[in-house]
Write a structure and sequence with these properties.
Elements (H helix, E strand, L loop, with lengths): L3 E6 L6 H10 L3 E3 L3 H10 L5 H4 L1 H21 L4 E5 L2 H11 L5 H9 L4 E4 L17 H17 L4 E3 L5 H11 L1
Parallel strand pairs: 1-3, 1-4, 2-3, 4-5
């Protein structure tokens, strides 16, 4: 069986981490979203919102971490690896805020390709802001638009996961792989 590196994408608060946590509970190899860790580490250094205060530094750190996740996924003994957010997310967020970024951001999107991309749609009923998620729901909708445009630009076919129970969303994803 060929290695499947599957990425779950979607704007903030669409349920990605919940699905990753459930996949882990079912014994699947999964890599968590790393932006929360980067944000928490910056907050411990006194930077409240690194993405807002130093977006390029934040994005560089995310890009490095997501490339490492991809490379680690290739080395996993499991044939299927799920990742919460992918490399093109970094470009999508930079485009969302309108900042420029170095060429190696684009090159990384071209060099590291996921097997399948599942996108979770914005879902206002489950959306929650917290200390690491500063965006409101309207901003989440704009981010979603940038994610769709960016992944399509890099040739991905996006598989939309329906709004449903966690169980049914997991079954939908597993059925598609």
């Amino acid at each position: 069986m060929q290695k499947e590196i599957i990425v779950l994408i979607g704007g903030p608060g669409t349920g990605k981490s919940t699905l990753i946590n459930e996949l882990v509970a079912r014994g699947y190899c999964c890599y968590p979203e790393i932006s929360r860790q980067v944000t928490l580490e910056a907050q411990q250094r006194g930077i409240e919102q690194l993405f807002l205060e130093q977006p390029l530094l934040f994005s560089e750190m995310l890009l490095e971490g997501r490339i490492k996740q991809f490379e680690n996924a290739l080395d996993e003994p499991e044939n299927v690896v799920f990742i919460d957010r992918g490399i093109p997310d970094v470009v999508a967020y930079m485009d969302y805020i309108g900042d420029e970024y170095p060429e190696h951001f684009t090159k990384a999107c071209e060099d590291f390709k996921y097997s399948k991309t599942f996108i979770l749609p914005p879902w206002e009923e489950i959306y929650e802001s917290d200390t690491e998620r500063y965006e409101n729901f309207e901003q989440a909708l704009k981010i979603q638009k940038h994610l769709v445009e960016t992944y399509k630009k890099y040739g991905y076919d996006l598989i939309e996961v329906p709004k449903d129970t966690v169980e049914n969303r997991i079954l939908y994803i597993l059925d598609k792989i």
